[in-house]
Design a protein that fits this description.
Helix content: 25-40%
Radius of gyration: 20 Å
Number of strands: 17
CATH architecture of the largest domain: 3-Layer(bba) Sandwich
CATH class of the largest domain: Alpha Beta
Strand order of the largest sheet: 6-5-14-15-16-13-17
Number of domains: 3
Structural class: alpha+beta
Number of helices: 10
Shape: globular
Length: 358
């Protein structure tokens, strides 16, 4: 059976690469198949599949830090990819590459904008289009010398970015990109609408000045913007299109890498447990969007105060229904009463999420 992969972002390229490794005949369709990836991708080391070339990891950090009300050490290994190496490692040798857009994508056929029709087993990894109805994650970052990073910061919600406490909040993400450079990035975790790049740039510059980090203006810049909701589980969809983006973090690359072999083999990554976990995560996003801005750090103070096993379940356990439920219940119990009311009100609108929380 011919495997047809639409979209050559990390999810599409990973599943095409693994299909070729399994001996499948593969056709890939993308309007710009050779376009270089530019975002910084990272993952928890325990999420990644064994087949991934370890040479794609630019930096590994044992125990990154999260700041909310206080400092928390996350007891896991965090790995930052060398983006170019990751893309190059997912080779497509032997695939038929079509530089075109899929305009009519069905489970067994694709019609391209150029009028070509391909038949076979289709995997739709074209990602998600932006929409005002979808919450997005945005970020603005600069790449500086390694000496400017005192510690790896998974999330730093400290209020030194100049933002008004009642404005949509953002946090600092700070990770090494190798031995010589680090990325310092002001991030809006989720917003509808999310913070604009200019707002994030001003906040980042204010925060770095407060920490005596001087920018020259010549630093390489990274801009990020993508939906954190809108994907639909199942069907021919994979990656962000297939709801594999974690709505509370925006992470999806590790999940796609880990699931690629299962998809190639014809298995389902959407077990009943995985669907239930996805519903709970959607409920979590609804709660996050409903929180008063000044209470968001309070929410994350409670989350990073959870036992490491519960944090892992919520952040990475795609089908760990018991662990996800335990994490959400423990988090709810630790929240102040006013935030509990906000969370309940937001979850009531999500019947699936509410049903699993009961």
């Amino acid at each position: 059976m011919e495997v047809i992969v639409c979209g050559l972002g990390p999810a599409g390229r990973a599943v095409a690469h693994r299909a070729l490794a399994a001996g499948c005949s593969v056709t890939v369709i993308d309007p710009h198949p050779d376009r270089a990836w530019t975002p910084t991708y990272a993952a928890w080391a325990d999420e990644l599949p064994g087949w991934l070339d370890p040479g794609v990891v630019a930096a590994a950090v044992d125990g990154p830090t999260a700041w909310a009300g206080r400092e928390h050490r996350i007891d896991r290994v965090y790995q930052v990819f060398d983006t170019a190496a990751l893309q190059a490692s997912l080779t497509l040798d032997g695939a038929t590459v079509i530089a075109d857009s899929g305009v009519e994508v069905r489970p067994r056929s694709v019609r391209t904008a150029g009028g070509l029709t391909c038949t076979g087993r289709v995997i739709d990894a074209r990602g998600l289009a932006r929409s005002s109805r979808r919450a997005e994650q945005t970020a603005y970052g600069v790449v500086v010398a390694r000496g400017e990073l005192a510690s790896t910061l998974f999330m730093d919600w400290r209020p030194d970015n100049g933002a008004d406490p009642d404005d949509l909040p953002s946090f600092l993400y700070a990770v090494p990109l190798g031995n010589d450079t680090v990325l310092l990035e002001e991030t809006c975790l989720a917003g509808r609408p999310a913070l604009a790049p200019d707002v994030l740039r001003r906040r980042l510059e204010h925060r770095l000045r407060a920490r005596a980090i001087v920018l020259t203006g010549a630093e390489p810049v990274e801009r990020v913007r993508f939906p954190v909701q809108g994907g639909k589980p199942g069907g021919a969809r994979f990656g962000a299109a297939g709801a594999m983006t974690h709505p509370a973090t925006g992470y999806s690359v590790a999940a796609a890498l880990a699931a690629a072999d299962t998809v190639v083999e014809g298995g389902s990554v959407w077990t009943p447990r995985a669907r239930a976990v996805a519903a709970l995560r959607r409920a979590g996003l609804r709660a996050l969007l409903a929180l008063p801005p000044r209470e968001v750090p309070v929410f994350f103070e409670a989350f990073f105060g959870l036992p490491a096993a519960l944090q892992l379940s919520y952040l990475s356990g795609r089908d760990d229904l018991r662990g996800t439920l335990a994490a959400m219940r423990a988090l709810f119990a630790d929240l102040p009463p006013n935030l509990r009311r906000t969370v309940v009100a937001s979850v009531v609108g999500d019947r699936d999420g509410l049903r699993h929380l009961r």
